[in-house]
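Mods, move this if it's the wrong board.
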Amino acid sequence: MKEKQNMKKYINQLFMSVVMIGALTLVSCGKDYLETSPTDSVSDTQAAASVETAYLTLNGIAKIMTIQHGNYSQGFAGENAIIRLYENYPSQNYLYNAYASGWAAIHNQTFHERDNSIYDNYAWYYYYQIIANANVLINRIDDATGSDADKKFIKASALTFRAYSFQKLVLYYCYRWLDSANGSSQGVVLRLDESTGDLAPSTLAEVYEQIYKDCEEAIALFKESGIDRTAGECWIPNENVAHAVYARAALNRLDYAKAATEANLAKAGYALMSTDAYKAGFCNPTSEWIMGSYGSANENNWYWSYGTQYACNGYYAGATSNGAGSIGRELINRIPDTDVRKEIFLTESGLGIDASNPNVVEQTFGTIGLSQNAQGRWGIMNAEAYAKAKEYIQAHQVAGLADAYSAGYYHIGDHLKFWVFDTPGVGYLPFIRTSEMYLIEAEAYYKQGNESAAKTALEALNKVRNPQYSAGSLSGDALWNEIMDYREVELWGEGFAWSDYKRWNRPVVRTSFANGGNAHTAVAVTIPADYGNKWTWVVPLAETDYNKGFKMGSTTE
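Not the wrong board. Structure tokens:
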């Protein structure tokens, strides 16, 4: 009986309109974020009673994407948890060797069929929270007080939030389109109102149809409203975000013509950042941030922010030997030294060292010039290599920000990409950038057989990062490998790598130092593309036990 009550409580937290209380309660009074006092509680009716309160509700949804969710343990803090646990860790080229042994189950994708695990449960819970909040606005805003233009903008933003969430859910809880029998396999539950009863999952094709519909309606409403979000409010969806979500969905549905069209529309008005901006640290929005988190110091998420553990000048990199995450050695070595994206990693060519030499780079954790003794204490192993790494980091220090890797531990492949501007991990986090849209175009054109257009899109991005770049005579598999490599490098650490490989039907192949890579032996494995329910997380038990629309233990028909 108690278990049933807990399930009921869980599902209510997901779908009942009272979720709006949580969304607005968690919104701070930070002046740059919301010019209002924090709300102790608010009913669903109040949340959409006027365009003023409805806009606060939009901010509340954005806040769900950044806060620590109390029903879960440490670090389950919205989108940054998705980026870490569902994308970075299980991917091929994001390595965190200090934690590889303890987190090997996540790195190696052994949790996909554990329906009672918090790792299986979290993405479902999190994205349906966003959907539940968005549904209140979508279904109630037409009756709110205020101008029609404001109501249209708010409804369009809510539709975009909903489409964003459904698009993410199908990545994790559904088969890849290639394995779906043209979309006839099981999708997710399409909750489009505020009801909480039994509801069978739709097919994957039906879910994509709804995502397309939401994006199209949002785009139309954005246009009719004549309103854009306030400059700098990257956390509020606008028309560009709706086009970008549409492009992502179409790409994963292998609808390449639609993906290219929508990606082109999404990037309008959001110019690629300059080389200087790229090297200035990914902690403040730039010209190409189509959507991102709110991350000001007055909304400090403390130890649950992405930057605390994964920024090169965050708390972990400044106080521990763990580093902040490293790029795959084989991937980054394929990128020319003249590319700014290679410049922001500690590489063999950049440092002038041989990473395969165990007297230069420790071959388990990848530390440069450092090794552990039998008692586990770190000491200098190669003073010359250590000095080179320290000098390189100092030369790439971002002015005005705390020092990178101030703890003094450097690893081959360490990044100088993600930074913070306040302790312990304060910074904005990009969710959608213009760069991604160019890469969607490149992939979509290639898959349509238009190699010329694919190379044009790839060069438009890569020449900004490396003026010497040319796709030249690349064709066929060589061009395809080039597109994949540059997508991985450009978007490294931003939460795409695992789902990209899933879409590409490509195995993860991590290699140890002994075999030319830089992965800890605990994660130096090959994960076939059909492993673990075809890389599909099962629907959580908390859902299937409550919602009788599901057949117990089934994720596909």
